[in-house]
Structures are given as C-alpha cells and as structure tokens.
Amino acid sequence: MAEGQSKSNLQGALLALAAMGIYATHDVFIKFLGGHYAPFQTLFFAVLFSFPLVTIVILHDTTVANLRPTHPWWVLIRTISSTIVGFCAFYAFSNLPLAETYSILFITPLLITVLSIPLLGETVRLRRWAAVVVGLAGVMIVLQPGHSHLGLGHLAALGAAMFSSLSNVIVRKIGQDERSAVLMLYPMVSNFLVMGALLAFVYKPMPVEHIGSFAAMAVLGTCAGLLFIAAYKRAEATVVAPMQYSQILWASFYGYVFFGETLKPNVLIGAAVIIGSGLYILFREGRGRASEHTPVLSSMDLARDKGTRPSANIWARLRSGGK
Predict the structure, then answer these.
(1) Is residue 275 situated within a structural domain?
(2) 134 in Cβ contact with 278 (< 8 Å)
(3) How far is the CA of 48 from the CAs of 52, 64, 195, 215, in angstroms?
(4) Which of 188, 248, 195, 254 is nearest to 218 (CA)?
(5) Are 254 and 24 a contacting pair, CB within 8 Å?
(6) Rounded to an integer, what distance in angstroms lies between the CA atom of residue 125 and that of residue 133?
(7) Is residue 131 part of a domain?
(8) Distance CA 274, CA 229 (A)
(9) Of 58, 161, 176, 288, which sits with the fewest C-beta atoms within 10 Å of its C-beta?
(10) Separation between Cα atoms, residue 147 and residue 229, nearest integer Å
(11) Tens-digit pLDDT profile for residues 5-40
C-alpha cells in the first residue's frame, strides 16, 4: 500500500513538473507578445483562442442545470477579481523579468492563508502566521523599496497575487455548490467583454506568426492544465502543490535565453524566502495533527475538482478565475 502510494506520488510529481514547464513556456509567449501589444489586446486574444477548448470542457459537464449562479454575489466578486488578475498578470509578465514576476506571484498561498480568516472563518495559528510574515519579508527583499525603482509592473504583480488569492478563497467558499461551467465561463466572458471594449483604443494589426502564437498559448495552457489535473488524481496535494515553485528555474532559463535577463541576488534570496515560507504552510497543512484547517490545500483540491487551478502562474489564474 505504502509502496503503491509512493509510486503514485512520484508519477504525480513528475506530471506536475511537466505541467509547470509547459505553463512557463506559455508565459514566454505572454512576455513576447507583450512586447508588441498592449495587455488588453494580448489578454483579449488569449481568451478568444481559449473559448473553443473551454467549450469542450463545459460540454463534458453532465450536470443537469442552467448557468445561473447559486451564489450570484460571490460569483460576481470572483469574476471581477479574476478580470483584474488577468490584466495585472499579463502586464507584469510583459514589463518585469520572468523570475521577478514569479517571485512576487509566489506569495499567493500566503495571502490565501490570510484571507481564509475573514472569508472562511479559518483559524490560523502562530506558526503559520510566522510563515506569512517571513514570506512577506521575502517580497520586500525582492522589491527592495528605497533601493531600486518600483514601477507599475511590480504593482501589477502584487495585484495579481492579491486578487488571485481572493478568487481562490471564493472557490473554496462556494465551489461545492457551483457548477464548473459557471466558475469557468463567467470570468472568461468578463475578460472577453472588458478587454474587447478597451481593445478599440489600443488595437494593432497582427501578423500571421503572432496569431499563431496566441493559438499556441491556448494549446499549451490546455495541455498543462490536463497534466496538472492528472497529477492531482495520482498524488497527494502536499506532493503536487510544491511543484509550482519549479517555475522559478524555468523562468531563470527562459529569461536568460530569450530575453537576456539575469537573476539578481535580491530576487534569488527573496524567492528562496518566499518559497520556503510557502512550502512550510503547505506541509504544515498536510499534517493532519498539526492543523485542522487547510485553506491553501483545500482551495487547490476544489480548483482541481472544478477544472480550475490556483497557482503562481498567470494563465492558471486566468483559467481558475479568469489566468
């Protein structure tokens, strides 16, 4: 039994690592296209090319019901949050080095822990509070306020992490009652309509190769999502969830190869602090005796079951709330 679970966990970890690599490749396209077009345009066409793939997922939802939300106000808040996440994350990836963007987005589990207190009535004890404080200190190391220039890209990355956390906590709150179709479709339609309305002010004609890049993004996002769901089906959440942090390795590699980015010492140290605190929270929640409340892992489990996924990756956020 133990040997079988160990083998299953190994398979799940490898699938998750593959998913993270594909997600990171997806983000290279975001950054590349972000150098040519405004975030409104890149996000609009990213969503547009994803509609056919999401439609297939929705058609597989055999629940006999309509698309009317069970909790309309929470769905509305989540939809607005997810729309903000989409724009902020696309802007951050377009304007910041990949590794720096990921480092900031990695605070999502920490913020989920904090938001679970007022929204879910969770109890967060001293050790996890300490991990949150340490993680936020890691963000300060990355940002170096007062010593380096902080621009809109940094603010956008922080906004993406904050509103992604809110979106994921709402999934935990209403996910048992809402259909997958509702949780997936509403944020996508919102992004499509809002970014489409703003597109008229920033639209630039696109060559065929850029249109192909948007199509490639949709395929990469879908493949990574399927791999990640498969990973969760095979392995425990405490094994799969930490694999998201491998994206910092991909970001460092891709940033150097494609964009000439180098990993600054403060980003490396800050990322290590943030990842360490995030791992502590994940493993702490994974120990049943240590914690009766698991807002981060529970949010991930529900996101998986609903065909969505909270993570540090922007496209994952768009899919989990509208990526």
Answers:
(1) no
(2) no
(3) 8, 27, 11, 9
(4) 188
(5) yes
(6) 13
(7) no
(8) 25
(9) 288
(10) 41
(11) 677 888 888 999 999 999 999 999 999 999 999 999
Q: What is the pLDDT of residues 111-152, one digit of tens each?
A: 988 998 898 888 788 888 999 999 999 999 999 876 667 889
Amino acid identity at 194: V
What is the spatial distance between Cα 192 and Cα 14, in angstroms, rounded to a whole number? 34
The pTM of this model reads 0.85
More confident residue, 132 or 292: 132
**Domain annotation covers residue 132:** no
Total number of domains constituting the chain? 1
- Amino acid occupying residue 122: E
Q: Say if 261 falls within a structural domain.
A: no
Looking at the chain, list the stretches that DSSP marks H as alpha helix, in order from N- to C-terminal side.
2-34, 39-59, 72-95, 98-105, 108-120, 126-143, 152-174, 180-202, 208-234, 237-240, 247-259, 265-286, 295-305, 314-321
Task: Confirm if 204 and 253 have CB atoms less than 8 A apart.
Answer: no
Residue 247 is part of which domain span? 2-96+108-125+151-251+293-321
Q: Are 167 and 82 in contact (CB under 8 A)?
A: yes
Confidence tier at 102 by pLDDT (50, 70, 90):
very high
Q: Please identify which residue in the block is written with the tokens 């990921």.
A: 102
What six digits make up the tokens of 120? 């879910």
For residue 295, give the amino acid letter.
P
Segment 55-60 shows an average pLDDT of 70
| Cα 180-184-188 angle, rounded to 5 deg | 165
